[in-house]
Amino acid sequence: MNAGNELERKGLNGKAVASFILGIVSIVIVIIPLIGAVLGVVGVILGLIARHEVKRSGQEGRKLAIAGVVFSGIGILFSICWVVMAYMTFS
Questions:
Q1: What is the CA radius of gyration of the chain?
Q2: Which residue, among 14, 9, 6, has the nearest Cα to 49 in the 3D structure?
Q3: What gap in Å lies between CA 76 and CA 14, rounded to an integer?
Q4: DSSP 58
Q5: pLDDT greater than 70 at residue 46
């Protein structure tokens, strides 16, 4: 039973992969600011959780988690810039 838990913990962290994918999608969907910002926030949260889990359990995915946090942050920033530029254009 312990060997199964050991194998389960040593794989790639799923939250790190999800954070990475959400970060990329939040950048691509910046044209829809609310959705891009929400995906970015979820990506940041998952990336931070994944970094903690990777450190604690020894799983792989540390770099993916960091990239997910960075890409998600960029997606949030782009969404904010898009809203500001749209506001300035139409006012």
A1: 16
A2: 14
A3: 22
A4: -
A5: yes
